[in-house]
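In response to the reviewer comment on reproducibility (Comment 2.3), we provide here a single inverse folding case reported in full, input and output, so that an independent group could reproduce the run without further information from us. The structure tokens appear first.
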């Protein structure tokens, strides 16, 4: 069974961090090391996700730094941002934007209690071929 570890805010030391937009709500950070296999290659990666909710309901969980919770952190990836102002996926070694099928991608890590949940790519937006055709048409139109 997978487990995640509750982490305290690095500056305040609190487990529950109030929302900056609505003080009734807050987040709890959880961390894990996930093991995945891609093309026969084992990969261990550190992951963090946030559990969101009303502060009083989060407090009822009675979690402290280091508490263990059954669950896992899954990676969601798609061609469009998950939220306003999100940066594209970057290679941490080179600092370059990572492309999937020639397109920029965005990732988000999500906590789930569902042990069968897996990382997934959400195919949203137009297929690459349509995007390339539309770009070529727009470029041709500019030349006319």
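Designed residues, in position order:
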């Amino acid at each position: 069974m997978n487990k995640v570890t509750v982490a305290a805010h690095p500056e305040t030391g609190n487990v529950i961090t109030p929302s900056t937009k609505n003080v009734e709500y807050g987040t709890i950070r959880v961390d894990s090391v996930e093991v995945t296999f891609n093309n026969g290659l084992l990969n261990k990666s550190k992951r963090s996700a946030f559990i969101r909710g009303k502060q009083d309901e989060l407090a009822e969980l009675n979690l402290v730094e280091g508490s263990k919770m059954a669950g896992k952190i899954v990676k969601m990836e798609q061609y469009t941002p998950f939220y306003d102002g999100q940066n594209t996926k970057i290679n941490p070694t080179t600092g370059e934007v990572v492309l999937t099928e020639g397109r920029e991608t965005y990732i988000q890590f999500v906590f789930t209690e569902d042990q069968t949940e897996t990382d997934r790519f959400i195919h949203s937006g137009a297929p690459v071929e349509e995007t390339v055709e539309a770009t070529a048409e727009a470029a041709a139109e500019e030349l006319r």
